[in-house]
Amino acid sequence: MSLKIIQSKRDTTVLEFEYTNDERMEYFKKQIDENIGPLDHKTNVKGGMTKYDFFLKDSTFMNFFDKEFFVPEIQKYQQAFTLPNLQGIAYIKDAWGNKLEKTNEIVPHDHRSQWNSVLYFCDSAPLKTEAGEFKTFKGKIITFNGWVRHWVEPVDKERYSLVWNWNCFWENKEGK
């Protein structure tokens, strides 16, 4: 699946990617299972949650973000950012995992970052946003502006996701 740019109900950009490395996703899911607890039901996530910085300390995730998949994939489609002669430098602010069980939810909120991205591990509940509703499935990554309010209504079955907030700083390719 290549990049899909979605027209939305709000003036925002929503990007969707598909990540197909099952081994890596199983690793991330295991890390979420083993490390939820510190923030369970204490934030907008009314379910299980790792610490906000948990995946920043995980070299496997950081490699996925910087080198293996995410940043290289974004750079393939930098025209989506309407900056044709620039190269983006992504800085990840925080990254955490969520596990929702039956009746858990994520209440409406936004993020203090330019972008937030979510990797889904199942097709449980859709992501609802001011920009529209998005179906989720194993391996789907949804990226949208951090200021877009979003939520997940109470789920009817287990739902895992890995979330990261990031900012993009732009520099001229000629070094100017």
Shape: globular
CATH top level assignment: Mainly Beta
Mean pLDDT: 87
The CATH topology is what?
A: Jelly Rolls
The helicity comes to: 10-25%
**Gap between N and C termini, in Å?**
35 Å
Instruction: Give the SSE order as H and E letters.
Output: EEHEEHHEEEEEEEE
Proportion of beta-strand residues:
35-45%
Number of helices: 3
Tell how many strands the DSSP assignment holds: 12
What's the alpha carbon Rg, rounded to whole Å?
16 Å
Question: How many domains in all?
Answer: 1
The spatial strand order of the largest sheet comes to 1-2-10-7-12-5-4
Under the CATH scheme, the architecture is: Sandwich
Largest sheet: 7 strands, antiparallel
Task: Give the helix/strand class.
Answer: alpha+beta
Compact summary:
This protein is an alpha+beta fold. The protein has helices spanning 22-35, 59-68, 70-76, and strands spanning 4-6, 14-18, 45-46, 48-49, 86-100, 105-109, 115-120, 127-129, 132-134, 140-145, 150-152, 159-172.
